[in-house]
Amino acid sequence: MIMARSQILTPCLKHILIHLEPEDVARCAQVSRFWRDACYSDSLWRRFCDRRWKYWKSKPKKADGWRQIFIARQTTDRWAFEILDELAAGGPYYLSNMKKLRQLGDNCREILLWVMDNPNEQFPSNFN
C-alpha cells in the first residue's frame, strides 16, 4: 500500500505546530491549503485550549470546533483585561464594570487569579 505524502507529513507537521504559539500557527495556516488543514486540526487547538485555560464556565461543546472555542475564549480574556484596566484606572463606571466582569463569570478566573498573584506586573501577552 502506497501512502500519500500528506499522510506522512501531516502528523510530523502537527507535532511541530504544537510547540508554537497559537498566533504563530494561525500565520502558518496562510502558507497553503495543506498547511491550513494541518493548522486547523481540532486536536491541535484542543491542546492549545487545555494549555492556556483550566477553568471553564461551562464545558465547551465539541461541535463548535476547538479553534472557534479558542478564539471566543481569547476574546473573553481581552474583554476582561479591558474591564480590569478601567477598574484599575478608577473611572466613574465602577459598578457598571463590576457587573460586566461578573457576567464573564468563571471564564475569566485565570485572569483574576493571575492579577491577584502579580499585582504590580503588566498583563501577560499570551492572555490576549
From TrEMBL:
A single GO cellular-component term from the record reads:
cytoplasm
Query: What SUPFAM superfamilies does the record tag this protein with?
Result: F-box domain
| Top-level taxon of the source organism | Eukaryota
What Pfam families does this protein's entry cite?
A: F-box-like
Q: Which UniProt keywords apply?
A: Ubl conjugation pathway
- Domain F-box, by residue range, is 15-50
InterPro entries, per database record: F-box-like_dom_sf, F-box_dom, F-box_SCF_Substrate_Recog
Task: Give the pathway annotation.
Answer: Protein modification; protein ubiquitination
Supply the PANTHER family for this chain: F-BOX ONLY PROTEIN 3, F-BOX PROTEIN 3
| Protein name per Swiss-Prot or TrEMBL | F-box domain-containing protein
| Source organism | Diversispora epigaea
